Amino acid sequence: MKQDSSQPADPLLQIHARLREAEALRQAKALDKAQAICADLLKAHPDYVGALQTLGLVHADRREYEAARLNLSRAAMLNPRDCKILTALAGVYLKLKASEMAMRTLEQARRIKPEDANILATLGEIYREEREYELAAKAYEKAHMLDPSLGLIRLGLGHSLIHLGRFAEAAKIFNALVHEGGGGHAAVAALSHLPSQFVEVDLLRAVEEARPAPTQPQDDAKATLAFARATALDNAKRHQEAWRELSAVNARIAVTLTEVLRKDERSHAKLLDLLNTLTRNPRIPRDEAPCQSLFILGPSRSGKTTMEHLAAHLPGLRRGYENPIVENATRRTFQGAGLITRGKLVELPPQLDPVFRQNYLEDLKERAGEARIFTNTHPGRIADAWRLAVAVPGVRFIFVKREPYDLALRIYMKHYRSGNAYAYDLAAIFRYIDWYHAVMDGIAARFPELARIISYEDMIADPRAALATAAQLCGLAVPDCPLPDLGDDRGAAAPYRELMDAALSA
Known about the structure:
Layout: H1 11-27, H2 31-44, H3 49-61, H4 65-78, H5 83-95, H6 99-112, H7 117-129, H8 133-146, H9 151-163, H10 167-180, H11 184-192, H12 203-209, H13 218-235, H14 239-256, H15 258-276, E1 292-297, H16 304-311, E2 317-318, H17 325-336, H18 353-368, E3 373-376, H19 385-391, E4 395-401, H20 404-412, H21 426-446, E5 451-455, H22 456-461, H23 463-474, H24 497-505
Parallel strand pairs: 1-3, 1-4, 2-3, 4-5
Helix pairs in contact: 1-2, 1-3, 2-3, 3-4, 4-5, 5-6, 5-7, 6-7, 7-8, 7-9, 8-9, 9-10, 10-11, 11-13, 12-13, 13-14, 15-21, 17-18, 20-21
């Protein structure tokens, strides 16, 4: 029945139509217009949940996460049983590095709607941020079963599989996304991180055709694609072209990080000076540890993950990847003592070591479960290593060294999500390697019963000997089982040696 045009329009329907218009504009990336409509609606109706939700999403699309949190939190306060609001709020908490709050918020949503693809996908993101890659993969797989059309779920699953070393499965996802034209530059970049034998597409062509997502910062996306292009050229043995691409993109990034690099190098020098003041064989805790913490440390790209993959064959060992136990325990200890928050264990007053130990062991028990040994491969933990040795029982270290030119090249070829200011200047990379090796040597000399040094080259040449070293350190027998193919990246810098030397001398 046709509505009588002479009748006045329903105000509620008019307001709702404006909200739908704002959401359509948001999805079309017309964020200013969407925000203006939401602001008008909220000025007249401050408790309009739909407008608060859309405005929060507008701010999230702009990466204004604190503003997004304020609006979504108010929306959730007014309607605490709306799963879409709770899921969006959890995603914003994750962007703000508040993983625990993200998990708590998402648990509310899951109790209301346990079989929801978006909730499970956000859960996968939280697990991935916490480096719980097995749990992340399971969450993504379940989300994918519920809604196979969501490309972000496939991207998250693929990245989780890469961290788990399941390269063939990850490649299947990313090859398919590139073939379909989905996943944008993120899928292409992910393929460039996989061993070349798993790449089934023309990577160079895929790089040229890739388009960044509209919400992705364009400079960051261009840099990501430049590194992918360099990798594709390297795979094709077009080394001169690969080096030109690498030199150009690294130079652009290095200029923006000059002050950060100087600050980091001053901090590194202080840490090394502090380590050199330690006496030999400092006192270490002899308490019985329910689970040993095995830190497998070395500079980025040195082979830590390869060593962890090999060590996973030891009975009772669970891989922890680059888990944040140390950072979490350090932060909680500072905050619990009423001090300003710091993230470095070396800055913690020694009298708070018992509190740190308790916080650390609680998190370790939760993550490790029934495992006897739990690993951590976060390279930044080298700064905390000596404090860990004297504060926590059952700590062990395997330090991985690699031929410096091979290592420097692989660092120079990687686009890091954050930090690693040294990585974009070749001379700074070599200084960083020298510093890291000096710290490893110093800790190994002062804690000989807790630490072993393994070279990447020796590990590849004789994996069983490397596994035996890890077993002996942890007081375990060497398992009699087939060992995995570890790959072989030795000699990676050989075609670039002259180019690297020329760049260093310049």
